[in-house]
Amino acid sequence: MSYEEFRKSRAKKITIWAVASLVLLLVSVVLALSSGNGKLNLVMISHLFSDSKESMILYSIRIPRTLAALLGGALLGVSGCVMQGVLRNPLASPYTVGVAQAAAFGASFAIIILGALEGGSFGSLGVVGSAFISSAICMGAILFIGTKLSGSEPSSLILAGVALGALFSAMTMMLQFFASDLNAAAALFWTFGDLGKATYQNLSILFISFAISFVVLWRGHWKMDALSFGDEGARAKGVDVGKFRVIMLIVSTFGSAVVVSFFGIIGFVGLVAPHLVRLSIGQSYGVLVPFSAIFGAVLLVLADTVSKFIIPPVIIPIGIVTSFMGVPIFIYLLARKKNGS
Question: Can you give the CATH number for the domain in which 127 is found?
């Protein structure tokens, strides 16, 4: 096969996958908007532009929840993709760099120490702010340890993240141990992940965060392609490896921290989505970054839909569902990769 034939074949494959994934995304959104209380009612969509009770349910509950799943899944997917690329580690995710654990500590601190959910001076937005600040502190510490002490080596950054993640987990458990039963339960429930916290106000922040993160991360796709050949290979192509790695980690961690701060810990989306893209479409980051966003959005919207049908009318926390869904998917991907298919 000539290069021109290969290029046309690849472009055709990408186009087919783009259309298929967007159709799947649309179907998953329709299912999410039509589902509730353990029932699927496709007629619900017809009330979108009416003044009925169903319309109020859509605009006040289901649309914010679905938009949160779309934007949150997309942000986690693209952030996980970039983390795996710049750290050259297929298991890199917000958990790997300690962001999720740091956010859990920040939320627990606001709930237990500051009384954020007991009419304290902070309130629910204080939980979000505290979780985000804690994540930012964690990322700053990782970058300081990894760059100042070890010269931005991927392994050093990952080890620093693992160590700090363990530290924040220990501090979270310490807070919960001495907390009242009510506050300890509230802090624990926060870690489960809950898209029901979505409001149009935090969705606007989430959208802006996604737009900024996506543009910055996608613009660096050719440098990530160069980095996949190793640091020396990237330097030979004119990439300032240390600076580029730090910028990409800051932006991708910022995206993950925003999602985790608003909705709690949502596992496996940022880990699985990039691997699904690699195995189905290709390894180029020009493709990986946008498709990881789409696949991440699809995964989280479908997980949210499934959460409504497990034990109706109870909605299972989204973090629990993504973990149950993510584990078998990830094992399948590992088995498929091992078999070379």
Answer: 1.10.3470.10
